[in-house]
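Figure 6 in text form: structure in, sequence out.
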């Protein structure tokens, strides 16, 4: 397990790659990087980093140094954000074509693609498998009558373009991304649903209103995979009814 030895890097350029991440973290921490998992776009024809990834070190001290020394460093014209991944946050499982194993020393050895069911780490993420109840139809923003007042539920808009997605599980990939980043940086996420029939909508339910309020502040007008997203609060009662959840 990488508990305590893993950091989450975000605000990465779409052109970011394992080699660039390895060089940045190894140079600034003097610690051994043992694994790198970047979140990749589902469109294999235009493979781009989704702006987030996980870096695992050999020791906890090296991970702590990474948070102190790498945060704010420039990489491909962006300032990298770095936070420690809490032990309670599950590290993205390997599978699919998620990323590559970090290299140690001069050779950069590619490793089993680990897309973590697609790009988990989320940009804003929330990765709990959201029941698809009532998902359909592109449309509706769902329950947004409470958007002016903080609630446990939020709606993220413009997170993706469904017409550009080709992977059969791209909606799961994005949900994993969102949940992973939100839990790493903000707090527990109890439910996530990515509406693949919508214009980029992702619905999230947090453990409490305070966490949801932090999420709203952190995610509203933030870029995710090159797209500027907006965030609105949703009515918990309507949210639960739509997704078949117990209040």
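Output sequence:
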């Amino acid at each position: 397990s990488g508990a305590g030895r893993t950091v989450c890097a975000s605000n990465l350029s779409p052109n970011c790659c394992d080699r660039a991440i390895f060089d940045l973290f190894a140079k600034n921490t003097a610690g051994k990087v043992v694994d790198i998992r970047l979140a990749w776009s589902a469109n294999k024809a235009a493979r781009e980093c989704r702006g987030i990834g996980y870096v695992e070190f050999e020791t906890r001290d090296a991970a702590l140094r990474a948070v102190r020394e790498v945060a704010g460093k420039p990489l491909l014209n962006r300032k990298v954000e770095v936070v420690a991944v809490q032990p309670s946050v599950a590290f993205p499982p390997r599978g699919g074509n998620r990323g590559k194993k970090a290299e140690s020393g001069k050779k950069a050895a590619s490793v089993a693609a680990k897309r973590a069911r697609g790009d988990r780490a989320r940009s804003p993420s929330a990765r709990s498998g959201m029941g698809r109840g009532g998902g359909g139809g592109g449309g509706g923003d769902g329950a947004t009558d409470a958007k002016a007042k903080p609630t446990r539920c939020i709606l993220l808009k413009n997170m993706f373009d469904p017409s550009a997605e080709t992977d059969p599980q791209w909606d799961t990939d994005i949900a994993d991304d969102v949940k992973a980043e939100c839990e790493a940086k903000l707090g527990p996420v109890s439910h996530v649903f990515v509406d693949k029939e919508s214009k980029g909508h992702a619905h999230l339910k947090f453990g409490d209103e305070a966490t949801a309020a932090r999420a709203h502040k952190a995610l509203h007008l933030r870029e995710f995979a090159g797209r500027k997203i907006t965030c609105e609060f949703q009515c918990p009662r309507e949210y639960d009814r739509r997704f078949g959840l117990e209040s």
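Caption detail: The longest strand covers residues 49-57.
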